[in-house]
Batch of 2 targets.
Target 1
Amino acid sequence: MADCGGSKTMENVAEKEVPKTAEEKVNKAAAVVGKEAGSTEATECEGAIGGMRDPSIRKEAEDSDEEDSDEEDYDDEDYDESDGEDREGFMTMLQSFLMSKLDLSKDADIPKVLDEVTVEAVVKYIKSGECKSIITMAGAGISTSAGIPDFRTPGSGLYSNLEKYNLPFPEAIFDIEFFKTNPQPFFVLAKELYPGAFNPTPSHWFVRLLHDKGLLLRHYTQNIDTLEHVAGLPAEKTVEAHGTFRTSHCIACRKEYSQEWMKEEIFKDSIPTCSECSGLVKPDIVFFRENLPPRFFHCVQSDFPKCDLLIILGTSLTVQPFASLIDNVPPSCPRLLINREKTGSVDPVMAILHGIFTGGLALDSPNNKRDVALLGDCDDGCKTFAEMLGWKEDLEKLVATKK
Ligand code: OAD
Ligand code: ZN
């Protein structure tokens, strides 16, 4: 079960860390790439810098030995032996290439919603009345204090504790192809984690409070524990992105089965099979290699363009397509991460070195105007945030409801 006792001090990253300037980042990138250009080993970023490297290198080879212009003469040693001036020129070119890739100027056009990238500024924004539609995105981290393990925390996470199932790889327990050949591990686990035995955490109640305050546009959860439902969040406000135990289907003929029927099967340790075709019956939770529910895509399309503030709680943001939702809000929309560690960030320098710019939270970016992290325990983060909003007692009342 989850280690939920680790209550860490809240840390406002934006306040504590001095952001690096764009120039520093670019210089760092140039230094790394410059080093790699001199290396004899191929790297993953070859594609990204190839366009820079080849012409300058060829020119260098031609200049240094005009009689012998054969391209094959160039190798990495030639580059290493180049004089300081050529190297400086290469670095300057590389810098401007990276600056254009970072496209720092484009960001200047995006309106600034927060006065500064701090939790206080997010609170001020909510209090101003300008922030009317909040979307919350949650993962297993909001339920660990209820006694439900998350997936990826080393040691306590589910994927570190599946030895007894003898799986080829941890995620196999939720993999549809593996399930078809060996459904038993999933059903043993389903019995252990069956919804109903757990109570909502202060984080769930905080989401409910946002709804009570008329600010919640929608709550998107990857969790299948239904704790937001237990906390009284109406079904129409919740999107269960990874499905639910409420219904089940035969994976062969799609015949539907009720929650009661499936619960009985699970608790008598049987492998549920279809009365029509003898196919396997599985709760409608989304397995790897299965589609997300149509409601997910439908709601994403209508909700995200309207979002005034995105609050991300307790998720490693590693599973797609859920993780990419953070990039579906308008470019100026503030995003608040409440989690034990920073997740969802793509270091702009590394992104360029790998030839892609994938979006993600800009927590450490020099031009971050909208992303804020409240690092530590989710429940503590929600309580702190509620208190800053003047909602301390409202939250306490809700939390007391289910004791
Ligand atoms: P993960 O286990 O991948 O990530 C949980 C995140 O929450 C990590 O960053 C933890 O550090 C953090 N965390 C845990 N407890 C916390 C606490 N009390 N306070 C603050 N942070 C805490 O779980 P998910 O991101 O939900 O999918 O995983 C996503 C998906 O991967 C799941 O829905 C599941 C899994 O495979 C399927 O099975 C399809
Ligand atoms: Zn069937």
Target 2
Amino acid sequence: MLLVTIFGPGGERKMSDCIFCKIVDKEIPAKVVYEDDTVLAFNDIQPQAPVHVLVIPKKHISDLTALAEADLSKVTHIFKVIKEIAKDKGIDEEGYRIVNNCREKGGQTVGHLHFHLLGGRQMHWPPG
Ligand code: 5GP
Ligand code: ZN
């Protein structure tokens, strides 16, 4: 498979075969709930709860293991955005769940770092 690295308008690295990079570039449609220079949030295509939003860095970072120290501030910012979305969706007081599936044993299926924001129903533990 041919992998091409492309630089976006902000000099952010994109991967040509990555679904979430395509959503960032608006090549694939998604219901965007939040966007700024470095972060995008959109509804999951297969929602597992009344609120199921994916929050991602616009830069292509494959997963948490691959996250460089220099990009740690992106995750801090993502968590700030998650708090804002939870408030907008009216689930901040009742509570919600944040999930990051990392690599194969973590159950990650899309190789672009993302955090699931799940809410609007009772969550249970342990997850599968
Ligand atoms: P993971 O299993 O990697 O933690 O989560 C990937 C998530 O991306 C899944 O919940 C899946 O439903 C979602 N997903 C996969 N492809 C698309 C897509 O094209 N659009 C949107 N909005 N979500 C997607
Ligand atoms: Zn990507």
